[in-house]
Write a structure and sequence with these properties.
The complex is a heterodimer.
Chain A: E1 5-7, E2 10-13, E3 19-24, E4 31-38, E5 42-50, E6 53-57, E7 64-68, E8 74-78, E9 87-94, E10 104-105, E11 109-113
Parallel strand pairs in A: 2-11
Antiparallel strand pairs in A: 1-3, 3-8, 4-5, 4-9, 5-6, 7-8, 9-10, 9-11
Chain B: E1 3-5, E2 10-14, E3 19-21, E4 24-26, E5 31-38, E6 45-50, E7 56-58, E8 64-68, E9 73-78, E10 87-95, E11 103-104, E12 108-113
Parallel strand pairs in B: 2-12
Antiparallel strand pairs in B: 1-4, 3-9, 5-6, 5-10, 7-8, 8-9, 10-11, 10-12
Classes of the chains: A mainly beta, B mainly beta.
Chain lengths: 114, 114
């Protein structure tokens, strides 16, 4: 079974631009979560989507948004990019079977903001 | 809100040495516990997980972890490390009521020397 895939793998943008990242979950997984990984802050939860609805949200500004499509694929958008948005953005998927969930991670998209 | 502490930031061991990485969490309710590993240049992979039952769980590659509820700890162990275990190790927790939202520790970088 194919793992979580993320595109693109690398991105370079300049301040003020916006960016869209894509994530395809493992086949059959209905929940998709997004995380930001930086050297200073570590891994931080951004948000989670299930059945095309945002179900959980972390403590990030409104510039960070996402959506999920009917096939469970998800996109994440960051508007008005800032230098501090440079990070590895990880997507994780899970089956959503209830309280005992295991998330499986993709390789990430490395975003550099200049 | 839950939090996770990993007290060892950087550990250097010789091959065949025993490993124990500490992980403590803060949360009053029911939690699920995980250890993930990130090998150089690779994505986060699940090492092992604890949901309930036997507090000693075994994972891949000879790793195990013990959940001690009274100490809010979930330490990772391996009797004899190999050079290929060089990686960054992350402890993570989620509350059963928000199972899709993982809270990660800051990670421990393990370097195994020959």
């Amino acid at each position: 079974k194919a793992g979580v895939t993320q595109t693109p793998r690398y991105l370079i943008k300049t301040r003020g631009q916006q960016v869209t990242l894509s994530c395809s979950p493992i086949s059959g997984h209905r929940s998709v979560s997004w995380y930001q990984q930086t050297p200073g802050q570590g891994l931080q939860f951004l948000f989670e989507y299930f059945s095309e609805t945002q179900r959980n949200k972390g403590n990030f500004p409104g510039r960070f948004s996402g959506r999920q499509f009917s096939n469970s694929r998800s996109e994440m958008n960051v508007s008005t990019l800032e230098l501090g948005d440079s990070a590895l953005y990880l997507c994780a998927s899970s089956l959503d079977t209830g309280a005992q969930e295991t998330q499986y991670f993709g390789p990430g998209t490395r975003l550099l903001v200049l | 809100a839950q939090s996770v502490s990993q007290h060892n930031h950087h550990v250097i061991l010789s091959e065949a040495a025993s490993l124990e990485l500490g992980c403590n969490y803060s949360y009053g309710g029911t939690v699920n516990l995980f250890w993930y590993v990130q090998y150089p240049g690779q994505h986060l992979q699940l090492l092992l997980k604890y949901f309930s039952g036997d507090p000693l769980v075994k994972g891949i590659k000879g790793f195990e972890a013990e959940f001690i509820k009274s100490k809010f700890s979930f330490n990772l162990r391996k009797p004899s490390v190999q050079w290929s275990d060089t990686a960054e190790y992350f402890c993570a927790v989620n509350a059963a009521c928000t199972a899709s939202k993982l809270t990660f520790g800051t990670g421990t970088r393990l370097q195994v020397t020959l």
